[in-house]
């Protein structure tokens, strides 16, 4: 198993960050990485997630929501073709620091047969996508 993890400090409340993160309809307007999410953020629900890491073509996944803790955590588990080939558990976490500051953590744990073959691209392009998305969430939540 391999993990990508990025974080950013945001001068905002957990509620405001959460509202930006959960407004799926606005993603095409601002999100440089996850270009759309269709579906309801409820545990066990299926989403349709379109991502486009920098320098890559768009990809569509149909993950299942695994985590939903309002103003704290949201996550899903997606697979390429079938479980065990290439699986990704994507999680957003908001940690409150106090004084109207939080840390947004975006991480994904990858497992499956194809991970070693795809790791270099994940560690560069996907990591860059996480960081770009985090920066845009910061901009929106701090306004």
From TrEMBL:
SUPFAM superfamilies given in the database record: Bet v1-like
InterPro entries noted in UniProt: Polyketide_cyclase/dehydratase, START-like_dom_sf
Domain of life: Bacteria
Protein name: SRPBCC domain-containing protein
């Amino acid at each position: 198993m391999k993990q990508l993890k990025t974080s950013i400090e945001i001068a905002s409340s957990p509620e405001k960050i959460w509202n930006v993160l959960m407004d799926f309809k606005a993603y095409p307007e601002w999100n440089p990485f996850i270009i759309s999410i269709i579906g309801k953020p409820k545990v066990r629900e299926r989403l349709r997630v379109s991502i486009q890491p920098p320098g890559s073509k768009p990809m569509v996944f149909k993950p299942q929501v695994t985590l939903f803790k309002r103003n704290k955590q949201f996550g899903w588990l997606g697979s390429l073709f079938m479980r065990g080939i290439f699986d990704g558990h994507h999680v957003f976490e908001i940690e409150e620091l106090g004084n109207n500051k939080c840390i947004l953590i975006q991480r994904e744990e990858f497992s499956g047969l194809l991970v070693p073959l795809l790791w270099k691209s994940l560690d560069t392009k996907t990591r860059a996508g996480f960081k770009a998305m985090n920066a845009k969430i910061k901009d929106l939540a701090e306004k």
